[in-house]
Every structure is written in structure tokens, then in C-alpha cells.
Amino acid sequence: LFGTSFFMVWLAIDAFLKVKREKFLPSGVVNGVRESLSQGDLGAAVSTCDTNPGPLSNILRSAFENINDGYEVVQQAVSSSTDLETEKLMQRVNLLNICGQIAPMLGLMGTVTGMVAAFAGLANATGAAKAKLLAQSISTALWTTCIGLIIAVPALLFFTYYKNLATRILLETEATVLDLIKVLRNAEVEQ
Questions:
Q1: Within 13 Å, how many C-alpha atoms sit on residue 30's CB side?
Q2: For residues 59 and 173, is the Cβ–Cβ distance under 8 A?
Q3: Distances from the Cα of 121 to the Cαs of 116, 131, 141, in angstroms?
Q4: Contact of 29 with 48, CB cutoff 8 Å
Q5: HSE-up of 180 (CA within 13 Å, CB side)?
Q6: pLDDT tens for the 191 residues of the chain, in order
Q7: What pTM does this model have?
Q8: 19 backbone dihedrals φ, ψ, rounded to 5°
Q9: Measured between alpha carbons, how far is 185 from 81 in angstroms, rounded to an integer?
Q10: DSSP state of 187
Q11: 74/51 Cα distance (integer angstroms)
């Protein structure tokens, strides 16, 4: 349980650092690509992506690599690349969900093993000591479920928050890319 709690805290901090709008939509890349494409300089746009690696640059590069195949292919490449970037990010965020699912199960396992030990201890106790021993053992056993829930509730709250934030940012990223590349719809590419 304690390993799960430390892992959950680490994942929440990791999500806080990774799921940010500026990480996915750096204004320098957006402005640089927009300016390059408005001037008709695809090479400068590709160069901007190469010097600023990240999810947006990866998506834009996939669009630029397919420019010779037509605008519909470019849109499909953008969609596929966005799906790939979404999967990369969501794999990390989904680990919070796993912590939220596992922690109560670990707590329940602790409760069940504690109850088994409590009833096993009852067999050796006599008289008034039986009731006291049973009460203490059950109390101790139930704490593991409580701790599991204390870990699970924040983990699931963080998961929901960061999943929704990531989805919003990734949708905005895809819309921004489609807005940036719309100038390529009628462009002729020199070989």
C-alpha cells in the first residue's frame, strides 16, 4: 500500500509537469510555422519543427512528410499522428487510474488477512481477553482498507482531471495543426 501511495504521488507530480498546454502547443512553434507557411517556405516550417521537438512538431512533421500525396492524406497523417501522441500521453495518465483501482484491492487483501489472523488468535484466547483481542485485531485489519481508500480517491480524482485536461489540450493541438496546414490545401510543392 505504501508503495502504491508513493507511486500515485509521483504520477500526480509527473502529470502536473507533463500535461500542460505550453508543452503541447508551444507558441514559438505555432508562430514560427504559421509565419513560414504564410510566406510559402515549407523548409523553414520543417526547420522550426526540427529545432523544437515535441508533440506538436511530431504532428506537423507527419503532415509535411505527406504533402506530396494530397491534402486528404495530410489530414489523415495529422489524425494518425495525433492519435499516437494521445496514446503516449494517456499511457502515463492511465497509471493513476491503475493506482486508484489497485489500492482498495490491496487494502481489502490486508483486511481479509488481518481478519484471518484475528480469528486464528481467538482460538488461543480465553474469557474476557477474547473480546478485547477480537476488537483490536478487527480494528487493525480495517485500517488497511481505509488506507487503500485514502490512496484510491485522490488517484482517481487526479486521473479524471488530467485525462480531461490532456484530451482538451490534444484536441486543441489537432485543431491548431489543421488550422496551420490549411494554407497547404491549394499549394503546389516543388520537387
A1: 15
A2: yes
A3: 9, 11, 13
A4: yes
A5: 31
A6: 778 788 888 888 888 888 888 888 888 888 888 888 888 888 888 888 888 898 889 998 998 888 888 878 888 888 899 999 889 889 889 999 998 999 999 988 988 888 888 777 777 767 777 777 778 888 888 888 899 899 999 999 999 999 999 999 988 988 888 888 887 776 554 44
A7: 0.77
A8: -95, 80
A9: 19
A10: -
A11: 22
Q: Within a 10 A sphere around the Cβ of 167, how many other Cβ atoms?
A: 15
Between CA 60 and CA 46 the distance in angstroms is 8
Grid look-up 512553434 returns 29
CA distance 140 to 71: 65
SS3 annotation, 146-163? HHHHHHHHHHHHHHHHHH
- Give phi and psi for 37, each to the nearest 5: -70, -35
Return the C-alpha cell found at 176: 491548431
